[in-house]
Amino acid sequence: MSSTVRLFLSLAILASTAASASAAAQTPRVAVLGFAGPGGSTARTQVIRALRGRVDFIPRADAEKLLSKRGLQGTSSAGRAAIGDALGADYLFFGRVKGRGSTARTEIRVAGTDGETLTGYEAGAPGTSRGNALIQEAAQTALEEAKELSPPRSRRRAAAGAAAAAPVTAAAASVPAASSSPKPAPEEKPDKKAKEPKERKRDRSVSELPVFEIFIGGGVRFRDINFTTGSNNGGPSERAFDSGAYADVGGYFLIRPLGRSEKPALQAIVIQGDGGVGLGLRARLDASGAESDVRTWRVLGQLGYLYPIKKLQVGGLVGAGVDTFTVDLNPALPSIRYVYMRVGGALGYTIISDFLGFRVDGGFRKPFSLGGIDAAFGNDSSAIGWDATATLGGKLDVGFSYAFRFIFETYDLDFAGATENVPSRGNICPEGLSCGGTDRAFTYQFLVGWSF
Questions:
Q1: DSSP string across 197-235
Q2: From residue 338, how far is each of 242, 366, 383 by CA, in Å?
Q3: Of 448, 403, 401, 445, residue with least CA distance to 298
Q4: Is the sign of the CA dihedral 54, 55, 59, 64 positive or negative?
Q5: I need a surface site. Which of 91, 105, 281, 335 has the fewest CB within 10 A?
Q6: How many CB atoms lie within 10 A of CB 422?
Q7: Cα separation, 114 vs 112, whole angstroms
Q8: What's the rounded Cα separation, in Å, for the pair 301 and 112?
Q9: What is the pLDDT of residues 400-449, one digit of tens each?
């Protein structure tokens, strides 16, 4: 075989190897992060479908494990840069869904290896046939534009390698006839971790917290009051009221003013309001058998901090409230109005993203006004209180939300001091007897509302 033929074969092998390596090198590695907002999981699924066969996927679980280990968030450029550096991602797709239903819009963003946004597009509503098609089209367009703006690192390495190999090709013309022909470079084994993740109908690995929630509904409430005071004959006097079950309308709202921030420390700030009112409550409070109208309502406003850690929220709230029990004049019980300060803790957990989660609260209450109790049972009377709340509920992508709620509230009272001449007046507490009592309420509610 002549030297010319050998040279020709060598050049052909080199060209074929370079073309094959170039084609493989141009397949970028991509991480598709979470999409915030209602329908974000559906939008992310459409992006994955659009990129299928065009990129090598980095499993989301690997990216989230890295972020959790380093205490970073995928919503920050630092977190995205860490994924690009540690997992070799050329591009990172992320975004959010604004609005709800058929009018929602999907924002798609593409970041480069430094975590900064390269390009972005807006598409239709996830979950609709037209919206899904627009999301896929936008994702493919964004990928091509990102590749033009910042070629994949593998392509840049391939270009650098081709430039370095150019002198070798030129030198091949002078290789002696006895030299052996060059061997093609061994094909690089694909990274097992870069396999495309199996598609799931919905991704529930990350909770998407709403910025605003409002609930209203009804249920039943029980009120149990037991007081011990002094009597005219020097012994104790028992004052009791057991409401039984009565209708109660109530609800609450919660606002996260900075819920769209990229920083969890700012997302954690919450404002919450609770309230309720009793309906149709009447009571017989003396031996005459006459019925008295009872009007009861309550309201509580709080500022809190619930820090999100994946599916968990943990923190506390502080605020002030009013809890009333207004009754017609009678010889047994005065009207009550607790005006109190509250401080407590809270813990929430998302069981199934959007659909199901729970939250438990517990708090300490310190009333600084007791209403008619001061006049009837002593102007130096005092009280302390506790409460506990358990909520189980969730929301749908369209915004509809539901919740089951149980609330327990209790006050322990201590009567002391001078009394006034009112119908329900109690005498001075006999020596050796502890005058005071308990006031407890149990509430069961089913609530519906809206979240976004």
A1: PPP-S---SS----SEEEEEEEEEEEEEEEEEEE-TTSS
A2: 19, 9, 9
A3: 445
A4: negative
A5: 105
A6: 14
A7: 5
A8: 44
A9: 999 999 999 999 999 998 899 999 998 878 777 889 999 999 999 999 99
Dihedral pair phi/psi, residue 174, rounded to 5°: -105, 10
- What is the DSSP code string of 258-278? TTT-S-HHHHTEEEEEEEEEE
Can you tell me the distance from the alpha carbon of 89 to that of 191, in angstroms, rounded to the nearest whole number?
Answer: 12
Residue 221 identity: R
Smallest CA-to-CA distance from 395 within 254, 231, 275, 273 is with 254
DSSP helix, strand, coil percent of the chain (3-state; round to 5): 25, 45, 30
Give the residue from 275, 289, 283, 278 showing the smallest Cα distance to 321: 275
> How far is 164 from 21, CA to CA, in rounded Å?
14
Which strands sit side by side in the sheet containing 29-36, from one edge to the other? Answer: 56-57, 29-36, 91-98, 105-111, 117-123
Q: How far apart are CA 305 and CA 303, in angstroms?
A: 7
Sequence-distant (≥ 6) Cβ neighbours of residue 79 within 8 angstroms: 67, 70, 72, 73, 115
| 133 close to 81: Cβ distance less than 8 angstroms | no
For 238, the token pair is 């028992």
Handedness of CA 369, 375, 381, 385 (dihedral sign): negative
CA atoms within 13 A on the CB side of 277: 4
pLDDT of 397? 65
Where the chain has pLDDT below 70, the residues are 1-26, 154-208, 286-289, 397-398
Beta bridge mates, 304: 270, 317
DSSP for 36-47, written as a single string = ESTTHHHHHHHH
Q: Which of 290, 257, 289, 287 shows the shortest CA–CA distance to 272?
A: 257
Q: What angle do CA 211, 213, 217 make, to 5 degrees?
A: 180
